[in-house]
Amino acid sequence: MATCLCDAFYDDVARATVEVLEHAGCTVELPDAQTCCGQPAFNGGDWAASRRVVRHTLDAFAGALPIVVPSGSCAAMMRHGAPLEFETQPDLAGVDDTARRTWELSDFLVNALGITQWAGTYPARVAVHRSCHSRGTQSGAATLTLLASIAGVELLPFGEEEQCCGFGGTFAVTFPNISKAMGTLKLEHVLATKPDVVVSGDMSCLMHLSGLAEKQGQPIKARHVAQILRDALTGGPR
Amino acid sequence: MSTQPIDAYAAHLPPAKREAVYDATKRTHEKRTQLLFARFQDSDRVRQLAGEVKQHVIENLDTYLPQVEAKLQANGATVHWASSAEDACQAVLGIMRQRGATKLVKAKTMVSEEIELAAFLAKHGIKALETDLGEFIIQIDGDHPSHLVRPIIHKNRQEIATSFEREGLGAYNDDPATITRRARQYLRHKYLEADVGLTGANFVSVESGRLVLVTNEGNSRFSLAAPKCHIALVGIEKLVPRDEHLALFLNLLALSATAQPLTVYTEFINGPKASGQPDGPEEMHVIFVDNGRTEALASDCREILRCIRCGACLNVCPVYRQASGHAYRSVYPGPVGAVLTPLLAGKRFPEYADLPKASSLCGACNEVCPVNIPIPDLLLRLRNKGKREHAPLANVAAPGMGAWAAMATHPWLWKTALAGGKILDVLPESLAPHPALRAWQESRTLPGWRGGKFRAWFKERNAATDAKERVGEK
Asked: Cβ neighbours of residue A80 under 8 Å, at least 6 residues apart?
């Protein structure tokens, strides 16, 4: 699942995801009919609209293959959100089946494929933003396992890591003041560690943080985990 | 542009207030985390267990409430049932009138705030004096609590010193110890003058009919010891099945609320003064308050009734930290309030339909909740309710989802949009096609449009691979 954000803005992240999965020995298919996981309307409370999109996504990903997505947020939508909004629907079983087949990328690499050591080198100071959708899942730990295993990666802990960056989907535009304040705080903590690169498993958080940083005249280099893993194979930052 | 009410409130919050709230919540949250992990090997399991016990309680209230009523009566207490705020206030007034009482001292109870008891009694010529220091300050200022546990979290000591001076409680002095001593001196003889002492209850054991109260100031103990009559206002969800469950809940409540192993005072109240006991109230009344709880229990958000009012979700919540408690327009602010307030509002739900929107759904509240309430799920269900019921407040500044859903269910439309999005790159910000996009661009840049590029790459690469394979086959 490429995600709508990668479809629209971050093609290199989707590409890196394919390359990382292939390096791990997978054959990757890209269902052409895929669009979005349905989360924007789900979070917005418009569950009727969201369910239409989820049903479309279920059709697009019909079958038995694992569905891997470079976003904790979309993965959480498929694994938790969709079953919640289908609780009283007749087609809940199909949603549950898709939920069981869906994996966030790092979670898939570590906990489905058993990879705990990633090859290559990536000499950089790396601040990892643990996106909120990794709470209560194995994704956060998996991301850190993979990154820590790469030669040259120096992970930088920073203050109040458990706090949200303030993106939150439509929250970013319906609560723009609070969203900005949250993001600014996150940036202060992150920048205090003087990272070469800010890494996350979710481009949505990074889109918000890097957009905010750029607007405030202190651009950050933001990368998805998949890009770090891919680039490590060829010696480091591109 | 217009934003959600809580966002607008946050935008105009004085920086000193925001700092006071932020610093206090952050400090408590961090200390709580440290202590909780030090005391329990698997603190998540403890939270789950407590959640299971409370879930069991709220699902069996029909059994437990008659049991606890019988037990309380056997212990010598009189039990009252109040289905609304008005009923609860009338019950207190009725007890006061029957005793010819005019003076009431009260310990901190959120349910008394919920039913607006003090204002009701004032209308009937009865002064209900707050004895919790924070609530006392709120009362002399005509203010409202902004936190479940720390009602004056939004105030600094300079403000408090000014209020004390104004009220004739001594010359300006902002030393916290002096402020506390002056309040104590003022309050001490009020306990002796009072006819009735009113408290809440943190827990009521069904097994023994014991009321359990926790405080750090000892004011509830005085409110109980001096007056001849004790009234306890208790939400119907406050039960625990057995005394032994108190070990779990007293630990979790103190750790979660104030990051203490236990509060300074823990009161176990077995009933009114028994014969042979030297002092204590001669009369004890327990008023069980529903006020929307049964309706909440019947809803798909019933888990919120597990809440033990510790405030841990407020302390960790990034939105509460930025907006402060008054932004929520309710005695119950923060994540728990954003669920509880619209539910307890019943028919007035639309007035609070924006509260469930005040969350980035980050899930920190669920992670710290001592009774493991899935708050984000409940917020989502209430958002859905707001949408289904066309509550205008739920949709302030929210982008509509119709066009998006149409695109996302028609791949050809989706791909057309991916190709057309390039226009975003060249559009001046002021001409951004949607208010939501403008709101984004007010504080953030947008990345360059790369619509469709990934799909093209994947297709080309696969075509090249296929071609190579075909060559290989020949």
From this structure: A99
